[in-house]
Design brief:
134 residues, alpha+beta, Lipocalin, 9 strands
Length: 134
């Protein structure tokens, strides 16, 4: 009986080791997340598309946001249309307005900025692009 147990557990142990090594070897590599910097945001951004409660809206067709180097922004999206300080922590921009409005940055590239926020308890998504320099 001892010999038959050894004959059974040997291949079983080998199979378990093979599965474990495949699992460890095939784990996806963790992506290195690039933290957003103030310099990534700097400049003028014009609205390309805007969504209000997940439906595209044209009400914000002239919207803009402008990030200036001294960590202030100007925008016509918020009720107060004056220069306001903001802070950036990971993917969140917090505007120092009366509501402490928070924008969650979904994407920022050299020419595209995608952000989400809540204004008066309504979800908004903004897709901004850099203006043409021609």
């Amino acid at each position: 009986m001892n010999l038959s147990l050894r004959a059974y557990f040997g291949p079983c142990l080998l199979f378990c080791c093979l599965i474990l090594s495949l699992y460890i070897g095939c784990k996806p590599e963790s992506k290195s997340v690039k933290l957003i910097q103030h310099t990534d945001l700097e400049g003028e951004w014009l609205i390309h598309k805007a969504y209000k409660a997940e439906k595209e809206t044209r009400l914000l067709s002239n919207a803009y946001i402008n990030f200036v180097p001294d960590q202030k922004l100007n925008t016509n999206i918020l009720p107060i249309q004056e220069s306001m300080p903001y802070s950036l922590e990971k993917e969140q921009i917090t505007v120092a307005d009366s509501e402490n409005t928070v924008f969650n940055v979904d994407l920022v590239t050299s020419d595209t900025l995608v952000m989400r926020t809540k204004i008066r308890n309504i979800d908004f998504k903004f897709i901004f692009t850099k203006p043409d320099k021609s």
